[in-house]
């Protein structure tokens, strides 16, 4: 019997009704599929029933890899690796549809890595169907002037259109987590503000949200060398707090930061 490893953030999805709802979110017949953290393969079984063209699984746990190989034989390709170390753009020459019951302890790190590594010309996936802790999902989909709005919201909405599909109760997992989960659906945006280095967006938001309850004057001055001209031109009140600035303001601030450094 395979036991979930707390160190790897494992909670296996066992509710067949929920699994069926997930595989029906998007048409996957004859499509190339990537599944992150397949666990014992419960979702994989239902994906295979939809007759995809190809399935790639990324699983770090050696014991689970053995189980998956025995269970699916040659029906799937298994990559025994930490997803954070995988170059996703090299996984396949065709775009992938991605499913993932992401490990709770690294879910935000995975999503952030994927976004920051996205090419501005060619994207490696058609869509993402990902499961997060509900509180993390709430941060991803939050809008400005709300409690949950922050770095993750701004980063995710820069390159992706995001839709919440449904919540999942702890009883759908084994072992049962202590919190609810949420399934989110992501599609790439065709129009977005291009940066010289996307990590500058990460830097800007980190500086502003380091002290989210304080006004933005101090981090702004630090980033722009006490030059108020940019804030004035953009109509930014430096006595606002970080959550009061909308997505586009952060994207434009990042662009202006890059100009100021060039």
CATH architectural label of the largest domain: 3-Layer(aba) Sandwich
By DSSP, the count of extended strands is 9
Query: What order do the SSEs take from the amino end to the carboxyl end, as H and E?
Result: EHEHEHEEHEHHEEEHHHH
- The proportion of residues in beta strands is 15-25%
Assembly category: single chain
Write the CATH fold name of the largest domain.
Answer: Rossmann fold
For the biggest β-sheet, the strand order reads 4-3-2-5-6-9-7
The CATH class name of the largest domain reads: Alpha Beta
What are the low-pLDDT stretches, counting only 5+ consecutive residues below 50? none
Indicate the overall shape. Answer: elongated
Overall SS class: alpha/beta
Helix content: 25-40%
Number of discrete helical segments: 10
Largest sheet, described in full?
A: 7 strands, mixed
- Termini separation (Å)? 58 Å
> What radius of gyration results from the CA coordinates?
20 Å
Would you kindly provide a written description of the structure presented here, covering whatever features stand out?
- The chain is of the alpha/beta class and 262 residues long.
- The chain has 2 domains: 6-188, Rossmann fold (3-Layer(aba) Sandwich), CATH 3.40.50.150; 199-261, Helicase, Ruva Protein, domain 3.
- It has helices at residues 16-23, 42-49, 62-72, 107-116, 134-141, 151-159, 199-209, 217-223, 229-234, 247-261, and strands at 12-13, 32-36, 54-58, 77-79, 96-101, 125-133, 160-168, 173-174, 181-188.
- The protein has a 7-stranded mixed sheet with strand order 4-3-2-5-6-9-7. The protein has a two-stranded antiparallel sheet with strand order 1-8.
- Helix 3 links the parallel strand 3 (54-58) and strand 4 (77-79).
